[in-house]
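Lab notebook, bench 4. The sequencing result for the construct came back, and we need a structural model before the next group meeting so we can plan mutations. Quick request posted to the team channel:

Model the 3D structure of this chain.
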Amino acid sequence: MELKNFFVIILIFLLFPALPKSDSYDVIIIIPGTWALKENWFCIGGDFFEELNSSAKKKNMRATSFRWLTDNNEGGREKGAQELCNFLSCFELKTNLHLVAHSHGTNVAIKACQLLAQQQPERKICTLIALGAPVDEETYKPNMTIIKKLINLYSLNDGIQTFWAWKRIFQHQRGIHNLHTFINNQEPTHTQMHHPLIARWLIHIMNKNLPNEGILHIFDNKNPIVEKDFKQKEKLENDKPLNLNALIDWRKNLS
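Done. Here's the predicted structure in token form:
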């Protein structure tokens, strides 16, 4: 056994000393995006983590977080994906694994699942929740034989998500749910995609019967509402010129 994997196993034992050993159990792993190492929202004591962990405990689930070096390039994400793959491989196969990933953390998670398909195809990811993911299916295509359910939360007010010709949604296939997200009737920014209100309701949302094309409304004082989005394609088509103009303006400012 590699020394690195040994320490990962010790870390899991320390994080989850009270988890049952004979029955399956659920673990939720939060994966931040690029340049998040100095942030604490996804760690113990952070607002997002604490809201999610509070909801998880009510369902006898546990939350933890995964850190990666967060270099903003394919090499950095590739390295992070291999580290995540190693981390996931240290859990017992009967563990129900759920991943919650923000921004490029989603692409790290998707790449890790691609690696799992090659290295440990018997391992499954119950849920992958993407928060403001820059969708690039040419490089980071979800392997839906490993991922049982992918819930993609996106906002048309998220300028980072589509900044470099990335997309907002994943191609429609069984198990993928693209949800246009609102918080208190407002579309969140990229940073607000890891708002603690979203964390509060993630477990509730992932256990619902979701449409493939949907709208998610999250509120302070009542349960979230999920409805079918009959105009998703039209809204995304109207959104494309705005994203292109923003990219053109940015490149002009560089020159």
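Residues 17-22, 246-255 have pLDDT under 50 and may be disordered.
Will bring this to the meeting.
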